Amino acid sequence: MNAFVDMKKSEYALVAYSNVTAKSKERKALEKAVKKWLKHPGNKIQPVQSKQSESMAHGNQRAYKRMGCRCEVCVTWAISSGFVKTKPKSEIKRGPDERQLRIQAQKQGLDRFAQVFKEDWQLLAFEIGYAITAFQLERVYLGKSEIDQYFTWKYVKKVADQLVAEKLKANGGV
Ligand SMILES: [Zn+2]
């Protein structure tokens, strides 16, 4: 456990106070030193040049290692030069999440129906008693949406598969 956590409040306040005092002493000493330094001819305070605003060459050792730049160019350099083996974790594109996988699975679940019935979503909507509308079915098939209730999806899929099976049977099988 952190020693600070156990420290009593009064003790903590004392430490905080002494820190503040130390800092203000340092600040005063610094102010003095600066004043003294400014008295010398030629000494002048100038705004700090930001390193980022410097036009910096990317895709080299200096940019990647010393400046710590992780732009596309620098990362590509680091990999091609063998300095690192893989892209930094944040750069790696994540795979689809749970919802995207579900959307994908439902889209594929409607594939056979879409092929056999030429995307007749009105028919499917009618057959499932409009548990889901034709518009929603089309969106699911386009991968733009999902049927978020599992039992509803199971029902839609079951009816769609039945329709496909019946039609294929009527056509003498495949
Ligand atoms: Zn860079």
Please give the largest β-sheet.
Answer: none
Query: N- to C-terminal separation?
Result: 71 Å
**What is the molecular shape?**
elongated
Report the sheet-strand fraction.
under 5%
Mean model confidence by pLDDT: 84
Cα-based radius of gyration, to the nearest Å: 34 Å
Structural class: mainly alpha
Which ligands occur here? zinc ion
Uncertain runs are: none
- Find the count of extended strands (DSSP E, 2+ residues): 0
- SSE order, as H and E? HHHHHHHHH
Residue share in helix: 55-70%
Total of DSSP H or I helical runs spanning 4+ residues? 9
Protein name: Antitermination protein
Topology at a glance:
Elements: H1 3-6, H2 9-39, H3 61-66, H4 72-80, H5 98-109, H6 111-116, H7 121-127, H8 134-141, H9 150-170
Helix pairs in contact: 7-8
This protein binds zinc ion (ZN).
The site of zinc ion (ZN) has 6 residues, from α4.
Structural overview:
The protein has 174 residues and is an all-alpha fold. Among the domains are: 61-91, no CATH class; 98-167, no CATH class. Helix content is 60%, strand content 0%. The chain contains nine helices and no strands. The protein is elongated. It starts with a helix and ends with a helix. 10% of the residues are buried. The model has no long low-confidence stretch (mean pLDDT 84). Zinc ion binds at residues 58, 63, 69, 71, 73-74. This is Antitermination protein.
